[in-house]
């Protein structure tokens, strides 16, 4: 999904650079290339590409990342897809 853009300025992703130890785990696990190494510092370079999957926050050893995973666009897209494929009622009832 390289190049995919989420709605602008709505992601809940937040990075506390004061806590970050620049381990690059978030770069490794993020499927949307949201982070990059800038010199020896990890920074957010594509905030609007974040789909709030939560992988970065779960894998951050310094608790420097926060994201409300599963409540934003990703959940909306999945719900829309399920509705389009008439699977939503099945999912909701199980
Ligand atoms: S995983 Fe956490 S500590 Fe490591 S570079 Fe990313 S934000 Fe910083
Ligand atoms: S929540 Fe997922 S998509 Fe967003 S920055 Fe973290 S790993 Fe990347």
Q: CA-to-CA gap between the ends?
A: 29 Å
From the helix content, strand content and strand pairing, which structural class follows? alpha+beta
**Which CATH first-tier class would you pick?**
Alpha Beta
For the largest beta sheet, what order do the strands appear in spatially? 1-4
**Total domain units:** 1
Uncertain stretches of 5 or more adjacent residues: none
Order of helices and strands, N to C? EHEEHEHH
Radius of gyration: 15 Å
Total helices: the number is 4
Report the biggest beta sheet as strand number plus sense, adding barrel if it closes: 2 strands, antiparallel
Task: Return the average pLDDT rounded to an integer.
Answer: 83
Strand content: 5-15%
Cofactors, ions and other ligands in the entry: iron/sulfur cluster
CATH topology, what is it called? Answer: Alpha-Beta Plaits
How many extended strands? 4
Protein model, in words:
A hairpin with a 2-residue loop joins strand 2 (35-38) and strand 3 (41-44). The chain has one domain (14-93): Alpha-Beta Plaits. The chain has 94 residues and is α+β, with helices and mostly antiparallel strands. The radius of gyration is 15 Å and the shape is elongated. The strands form two sheets. Strands 1-4 form a two-stranded antiparallel ribbon. Strands 2-3 form a two-stranded antiparallel sheet. The protein has four helices and four strands; from the N terminus they run βαββαβαα. Helices cover 30% and strands 13% of the residues. The two termini are 29 Å apart. The structure holds iron/sulfur cluster (2 copies). Residues 15, 20-26, 42, 60-62, 64-65 line the site of one iron/sulfur cluster. One iron/sulfur cluster binds at residues 15, 20-26, 42, 60-62, 64-65.
């Amino acid at each position: 999904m390289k190049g995919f853009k989420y709605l602008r300025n709505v992601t809940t992703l937040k990075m506390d650079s004061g806590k970050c130890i620049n381990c690059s785990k978030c770069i490794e696990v993020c499927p949307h290339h949201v982070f990059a190494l800038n010199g020896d510092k990890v920074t957010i370079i594509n905030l609007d590409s974040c789909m709030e999957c939560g992988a970065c926050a779960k894998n951050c050893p310094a608790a420097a990342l926060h994201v409300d995973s599963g409540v934003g666009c990703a959940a909306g897209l999945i719900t829309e897809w399920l509705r389009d494929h008439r699977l939503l009622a099945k999912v909701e009832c199980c």
